[in-house]
Amino acid sequence: MKELFEVGFVRIARQICQSEIWERPPHYLKLFIWLIVNANWKPLGDVGRGEILADQFDLDRALRTCAGTSFRHYTYGQIRGAIAWLVSAGMIKTRRYKGGQIITVMNYEKYQEPQRVGRRKAAVEAASATEKPAPEEIPPDVEMAHKIIDLLNGLSGKRFGKIPGNLANLLARIREIDPTTKAPAHTYEDFDAVLRKKVTDEWFQKDNFRYYNPTTLFRPENFPKYVEEMRTAKPPTHAGRVETQEEMIQRLTA
């Protein structure tokens, strides 16, 4: 094991166990880790730092599993599906290049920065210092995104981490500007109302609850439609009277 660390290493956050990729088929995570490990650490020709040139053969070889004396391979569709999901989650991006593709690992530096090795030691030293450094200020849009993730977790009982893959679509919706008013297109109340409505949505309740996640809910083709549905929907009723969202959730989950 010591020899492995001498060759080099990358950083994977503990929160990956609480992220959406952890709930995906195992080759999704295997592919992402392979990309992080094998991406260029310095530019090489047209392939920059944090990028890798790979074709279908490379990806197939990276994902194959040993089965006795032979190998089992994922299908072309399964590999392309994993690539497409990683792109939609904001974890990688791709571009065509000479019969293959160049894959870029997003936020590559976060997996590589050597100064983070001693983060725990630095935290202990900072705690014992006379003057503690001021906490890093969180931008308002990021703070709002974290609050929305907390709400989503509370409603769904899931544990989505506040990581780039879960925040990408959400932050994009928060930062959208209404072209007419020049004001934010969506308020926190919009996100709150949509999440509370969709958690009781019949489609999500019928074997589709896995799609109640940050990536799907906040896609550009989904969220504006959900907001419009929420604004035009009639108040829910039960037993002849209007019921609140909290009452509906309790009734459906009882």
Can you tell me about this structure?
By secondary structure, the protein is mostly helical. It folds into 2 domains: 9-111, Winged helix-like DNA-binding domain superfamily/Winged helix DNA-binding domain (Arc Repressor Mutant, subunit A), CATH 1.10.10; 140-253, no CATH class. Helix content is 46%, strand content 10%. Helix 2 packs across helix 4 (76-88), helix 6 crosses helix 7 (164-174) and helix 6 (140-156) runs parallel beside helix 8. The longest helix is centred in the middle third of the chain and has 17 residues, at 140-156.
Question: How would you summarize the topology of this molecule?
Answer:
Elements: H1 2-7, H2 26-38, E1 51-54, H3 56-63, E2 65-67, E3 70-72, H4 76-88, E4 92-97, E5 100-105, H5 119-128, H6 140-156, H7 164-174, H8 188-198, H9 202-205, H10 214-217, H11 223-232, E6 237-238, E7 241-242, H12 245-253
Antiparallel strand pairs: 1-5, 2-3, 4-5, 6-7
Helix pairs in contact: 2-4, 6-7, 6-8, 8-11
